[in-house]
Amino acid sequence: MLHDVFISYTQPDRNVATYMHDLFQANQLKSWMALSGSNGIVMDPPFETQLVHAIRNSRIFVLIYSDYCNHSDDIIREIRQRNKQHPTVIIRLDDSRYRPDLSYYLEGIQYVKAAHHNLYPAACRVLQEVIKKLQEHFPGLNLPTDKLLFYNGVKLLDDRKYNRSVATLAQYTEIDPDNCDGWFYLALATIGGRKIRKMTLQEVQRLEAMLLPVSGTKETGFISLLLAIIRQSYYAGNGFIVPAPGIEALVDGVVLVREEALVLVMHIDESERSRFQQFLAY
């Protein structure tokens, strides 16, 4: 295989495709998209030959889906060129229904929904899915150590194996301390499904030390919300003064995508997230 990922997209969604291409490349995955500046089309051989060759020689097929795909003959041609068992990851940019021939090939394939205002969380989820499928379908492939640690840590969290998830994600954050997702998942694993109100002050302060440095931006609203839940549950829940930034400041302007809401619902006690239900509806 020449590439880890082939990106299929329509021209109106080229900015998203380029964003994903750059994200894959930055994470040491070889990505191919038509007309990209690095691993894309060159003048010779012909475009169609290169396209078919790239699809058949890529491990994962990533589709940037929007309603524009329903009006593109190229997209269905690219989908038909996939190998029979080609693992496919879809990132959805809108809620439009597949046209019939697309539905034939794509119906039943899980997708990641992207928010218009904030692509980053969905892009990270797609990256996780690609790494997951590479590991599952190509077990002999040497993936970067940090990516395996992150994927395995999140998988252990999903399986509610919290102690092992903490150990794995702690290793990951040592290797890549700048990735806010690592701290988010590590904090959830540290909470481990427990009631935050009954945790010790030292445990809560450790969670705050993880989350505060990476909160407070438009792209990290999911982290700010988790921090708000922690402070509401522990400080307000026990009658203590909530330290700054307060709850309202933390949740101001927060909008979550479906995947972020789901992971919080899965690992935070229902009684402690109930006040924040407006952010967790999906």
TrEMBL record:
UniProt cross-references to InterPro entries, sorted A to Z: TIR_dom, Toll_tir_struct_dom_sf
Record-annotated TIR domain positions: 5-116
Residues annotated as transmembrane: none
GO biological process: signal transduction
Family annotation (Pfam families): TIR_2 (PF13676)
Name of the protein described by the UniProt record: TIR domain-containing protein
Organism of provenance: Taibaiella chishuiensis
